[in-house]
Design goal:
The chain is α+β, with helices and mostly antiparallel strands. The protein is built from 1 helix and 2 strands.
């Protein structure tokens, strides 16, 4: 284990995702028949293809 994250409570999914993004993490797109898409909770932070 490289690091330990300590929270004073159970963080929400949004809080965990925000912490990852602040640390420089970026979601990895998955290749699908509809093209590359970000799946899971991280998809809520990626602009939709319709908006492009």
């Amino acid at each position: 284990m490289n690091s330990v994250s300590v929270w004073d409570r159970c963080p929400t999914a949004d809080e965990l995702l925000d912490a990852r993004l602040r640390a420089g993490w970026t979601p990895t797109p998955t290749s699908t028949v509809d093209g590359d898409v970000v799946l899971g909770h991280a998809a809520c932070r990626v602009p939709s293809r319709a908006a492009r």
